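This part of the workshop introduces the protein records we will be handling. An example says more than a description, so a record of this kind follows:
>
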Amino acid sequence: MMLILIWGCFLYHFIRPANSRDLAYVLHLQSIFAKQLGFLPRSAFVRVLDYRTTARILIAEVNSFPVAYLLYRPLSLVPSTVSIVQAAVEFDLQRSHHGFALLDRVSSEAYFCGFAQLQCWCASHLLANYFWSALDFVAIGYRDPRSIRAHRLICWRRLLDVSRPQYFNLPPPVAGWRGRRVDNFESLPALDFQELQTFVPRSFFLPNRN
């Protein structure tokens, strides 16, 4: 039990804001997970790290070495919402709660600043959908990208307070880093994890989601 408590504290104390020295690492990890994360140009990360935008990056460390990052920003067109833009953890350290620790930090900061909810988009074929579901995110709907080779995208939201705002299930007007208009959104207000199986291929389902 003591080991678990120490490990939990260790994770908490080594979540920190990114700085310009983390640019190479963030670009490296994005390149590894390009198919899952999509692509943001170097200039976008430079703007974030130079505080020329409202977006921020958090870094998770183990023994003073970065092992994960999370990019997030407030949304201007969705009321009181913080968007998770990218989140990535090193392959050999996944399922070690680094993603949980990063998201816990973002949730705390967003709640303290008066935000009501978090939002993220996730391609329907990715195992990351298990991650969002396990962290109490709710799938409010989906959209089909214009490219026939792209996968359906699920929109997840998580409340930061016990009261659900009226706009919780409102369709997002834009999506993506550049805020492109969403014109084919299908709402799914009652979607739960079991119903998510109709969107995520069964071959991706694991016996243990933890």
